[in-house]
Amino acid sequence: MDRAEDREPLVEIDGLQKLFDQSQGVVDTILGRDPQPVRAVDGVSLDIYQGDIVGIAGESGCGKTTLGKMLVKLHDPTEGSIRFDGEDITDMTREAEREFRKRVQMIFQDPFESLNPRMTVYDTVAEPLKINDMIESYDERRDRVTEVLEDVGLGPAEVYLDAFPDELSGGERQRVAIARALVVDPDFIVCDEPVSMLDVSIRAGVLNLMKELQSEYDLTYLFISHDLSLIRYMCDRAGIMYLGNMVEQGPTDDIIDDPKHPYTEALFDAVPDVELGEERRRANATGEVPSPRNPPSGCRYHPRCAHIIPPDDWTGSQDAFRRAYQFKLKVRRGDISPESVDSGDIETAEALVEHGLTLDVPEEYRTETEVATGGHRVDLSAVDLPTDTRRVLTEAAEAVLAGDADRAVSTLDDALTTSCAERQPEPQPSGTREVACHRYDDGGADGLDGSGAGLSAAPAED
Ligand SMILES: Nc1ncnc2c1ncn2[C@@H]1O[C@H](COP(=O)(O)OP(=O)(O)OP(=O)(O)O)[C@@H](O)[C@H]1O
To answer: What is the residue range of 327's domain?
Structure first.
């Protein structure tokens, strides 16, 4: 395959945003708050080249399906643009839109839902031909449907033409859905988790079929999947999404073998070894994915990030900054309060600091004391914390113990700052890919081992 950069992109996505539900809910009205839309996709840019298979990966709710639906015009973007073969799809004439709807198709996750139970296989597959006024004569239409059914492995087609979906297996239904997408001879197909509802034993067969069809029909695919082994198997290029943002994109093998964004690293670490065929560690990330209604400021991943960047004048270790910052987040969320500390052995500010500096991460990333105490406390001597920060944390802990949460929060807010929370990172080129992480600003990044403050370290190379 040519280098993607030498070819024309078939799909150009620029600054794409989709906000849902901008109306004011009851809670917002009562509290007098501005409505908070769900920021499902928020500033995604991506080029998809003719003949490529591009994968979009990320945890549930990160905006993959919403992105896919915008690409086939099932959703209109709130902001940003999508160009297909050079033409802006948000601003098309009726005629251009008809042509677009032939050239671009989508295959959905659930073949049980996506097929009309009252339509035969013939009617299902022939319908797009009728809708698009493509083949007038019944005999020619039937020939075309027969041909496509056989192309998707449903042969002899006569066996299937008059069958209803409930007479077919899951794999056969998904093949009918694929035939329905192919019958109009499209150029680009968005496949949203196309095999995740199928029995594991037949997934490979359907994926291999889709690969064969790609060359036969000269297709470009966008695969949406949370299954990273599928992305690895199918896709030349991949984009990793987190909370509506594209955090990293580039050649799939490069991303998997040497993830650059801390979220990508955590995502791939979380995959069982057998799936990616290499020794993987558990994800070094704290906490849960926040709500897309109220995403964190700056880099959306920063509250969970193992590589959060300390300020320039930080004199402790990066691990100590991460712990101190987690302490601040816990105080802000009210997770550290006299009531929450119910074990009975925390009576002093110092004990509360030792408790608050713990990290909610797998055991291999914890200190000895954390492991020994089941994550209840760290030994302060094992955390390379600057003296003035230790003083600030103790002051905040005293405020917490005195029941003055506001004072605790303001003490920490002024003292523990990070560029990661201040502004959203722009995607930066780094070797063969783009990474939206402040560690790659100005072409620089620290090593991925979590050591060092990281702003002025060596450039990232692939
Ligand atoms: N029609 C809608 N109205 C309101 N919110 C929506 C709508 N569709 C999606 N969302 C929200 O937008 C966010 C992104 O959803 P989306 O389905 O695109 O994510 P996803 O990555 O595809 O997740 P999954 O793998 O679970 O399908 C979620 O918070 C979801 O609840």
So the answer is: 318-417
